[in-house]
Amino acid sequence: MTTNLLQMRNFCIIAHIDHGKSTLADRLLEQTGTVVGKDRQEQVLDSMDLERERGITIKSHPIRMMYDAPGGGNYMLNLIDTPGHVDFHYEVSRSLAACEGALLVVDAVQGVQAQTINNLYLALEHDLTIIPVINKIDLPAARPDYVAEQFIDLIGCDPDDILKVSAKTGEGVADLLTAIVELVPHPEGDPDLPPQGLIFDSIFDPYVGAVAYVRMFQGTIHKGERIRLFGNDKQFEVGEIGWFRLKRMATKSLAAGEVGYIATGAKDVRHVRVGDTVTLAEDPCSGPLPGYTVVKPMVFSGMYPVDNDQYDDLLDALQKLQLNDAALTWEKETSAALGFGFRCGFLGLLHMEIIQERLEREYNLNLIATLPNVEYELKTKDGTVRLVENPALLPDDREIQEIREPIVHAEVITPKEFVGPVIQISLERRGVQNKMEYLDTERVAIGFDLPLSELVVDYYDKLKSVTRGYASLDYEYARHQVDDLIRLDILINGEIVDALTCIVHRDNAYNWGLKLCQKLKELIPRQMYAVAIQAAVGTRVLARTTVKPFRKNVTAKCYGGDISRKRKLLEKQKEGKKRMKQVGSVEIPQEAFLAVLKVER
Amino acid sequence: MSDARGRYGLYIHVPFCSSICSYCHFARTDRHDSGLRRRYAEALVREYELRSEACPALGSGHRRLATCYLGGGTPSLLEPENLRRVLAGTLGRSETVDDPEVTAEANPESLTAELATVWREAGINRVSLGVQSLDDHVLRLLGRDCDAATTARGLELACARFDRVAADWILGPGVELASLCDQLDRAVDLGVEHFSLYLLEVHRGTALQQDLAAGKLAMPRDAKFEHLYLGAVRHLAKRGVRQYEVANFARPGAESRHNSAYWRGVPYLGLGPGAHGFSGRGRYANPGAVEAWLAPLEGGRLPDGPVDPLDLQARRLERVILGLRTTQGVPLAWLPAGFDPEPERADRLWDVREGRLVLTSRGFLRIDTIEEFLA
After folding, report:
1. Of the candidates A74, A147, B51, B133, which lies 20 to 30 Å from B313 by C-alpha distance?
2. Where in chain B is the domain with CATH 3.20.20.70?
């Protein structure tokens, strides 16, 4: 490749979810002739079915485009399509660090959202050149002028600098390409110095092992050379090196300024972590690039096969998913109610949902997932401190000195008429408001410190419902903080169902227990006999409800009739009961384990 | 004389009726003439041959024929020569046990002394009479083409001519317990040894369904059904007729061997329109329309119909649902893990006897619900 640095542009697209990032990427690929003919489809860069279906990007997808600028000159444009969700905040920040410019895309109908702002700040932290883009101007409800004003307020740009496009129709995309070449600075870096490359993502390939996606900041790495990673000091031989089209394109080397990949042969992506710096073992650069952290899971959930026979399959599936997802953690766990399973750790709720969905769809597993919870710091009376990821493992109240829970900084952006309800639901969830800022005449940014445990339960759904979907949320971990927390157990027919145990604030325990019992009563179907549901703190029962026995209709089909039909009917009913877990003699449906999510406060 | 070889059954469906009962959803037709009935008899024999070839496990001496059942429809509408042809071409060509049970269903009004003689000579040794009721009002509500007096005469004739007589009653609109018990008493006194009591079911497309929709009559409520059913169960027991299946009652030793074999999972050949058969490994069903069944057989091949190959799991499930129908019940070991068999907890819908779960009469009445939990 002979393109010199002056003709390279590395950029990313940042946007709130659903603002059209992937569609805009599609148009750029088309207009530069990168994707033609049979490769054309919606969201070309989103390779997982799940990504296409949910309209989200989970992994980064870099791609190189060659662009003949109308004014002359052939440019190499590297687009790094980043994940667009708060759960993948760290990955986003690493992708941004690999670029010189960012297209900040905002939906012409919805305007600026929480993630827009967060991503913008993140991009500014990395000194990226921002190109403001208003997308979806083809929609009848589009308000480009209004959104333009938001942009001007937000980044202080000139109205003429704002590009108005429709990724759907392609309108304005040609101008956008010109703007990228004109505005985004070319990369710098000496290809002859010792190599220094940033790993901004990594995937696992069964044929070549862990593959690092890298942005070279200086030097040149060749195929066959021995590389070294700063973070874990491991060395690998470069089995393959190259750049990205829709697939990986092998080449001989990657030089300063370029974006490409290095196949390391590592057996596990956890050895090739996002944010790490790659250099040569023999000729190392002076030090790592800044900003490397090992991301830690924030949200935990027990995952159990409904059918115990699927335990090994679940283990196998988790191992396979982990190959490609360094942020997923799990350890074996046994529940008296659910049998053998795993306590899994996730970056956030979306990450959790994605993993659960992939386990079920790609690995055909039938799972029970317990209520998501957070990691508590527990200080016992004997002075030791330990972490508890599973509420059921919290010891007796008398042994506990204090419990600290994770608190997040949450930022909500909402139209001003919903400020009251937003504050109300946040305070109900033990939030402490610490910021309120008018972004313009219509929108308000409100900041809260909020226990993560409250956020993972139902905060986002509730926020969406009280603001009719208009509010947006972003959050980041702040600290662990002491509060008066206790363990609330649920007993079914007198036996504690450990998978339903939760940790709540002492003041809310009674109310919470009562509502949880009522909700479980709705969710547990009638059985052959009465089912008693109790909520208890220690030995003290706070609330009790009963599921009445099945009303046994006189339905005897006295004719023996068609046995095949009868059997198939029963098989179908049984299929419907697949998501039921037999706990003692009671059949409990999957929803019941998530009952807390459905409790109205 | 004992023979270690297995047994099998033969079911022959005769689809002809003189009039259609309002509740009936079986394969039946009232459009037929002697030409069609003759073609039917020939095709039935042909089907026996083809099925025996297709299923050698039943046909070639591996198993002996133990029971034969002619159901309908109305087998008593089949003229003597057609009946002889059918039995000679099937039963007559099978290796049977020493004393096969050969049952034919009859309508009370179509059973005559002459027919009884023909049947006995053809080998029929048990008659099942579709009495349904001995009350004119109830018979009218059911759309039966026959009054109570005629029905009673048919019952008397059957009891006079056959050692083994079974009779069916329907529990439905207009039935009162006192009258029902009187009717059952009359039948017991005449010598009926076997009773079937059916709760009337409403099937789509029947005249009964239209009548109900139009408000011409109403189905009894659950409580009324329960009152009738449990009352009849108790009454028959007092007369020495014991419940041995959801809908079937007999003097000890007089149980239907043919039906009992169904519930034990014994294989059987089913012949005729709408008939079902069971090879031991899978089930098949014939098309219900007479022409759809007849045409392929006249062309020398078996009619197409649904085939249900049973895998191990399906066979297990069948074993449970069939076993639950009888007073033999099912071993607790067959029931799902975690199932709590304690009868007190289940409102005495079942008993546990010698490691087997056996439904009580109250349980039988709710078997569909119970199956959902036990299957």
Report:
1. B51
2. 4-263
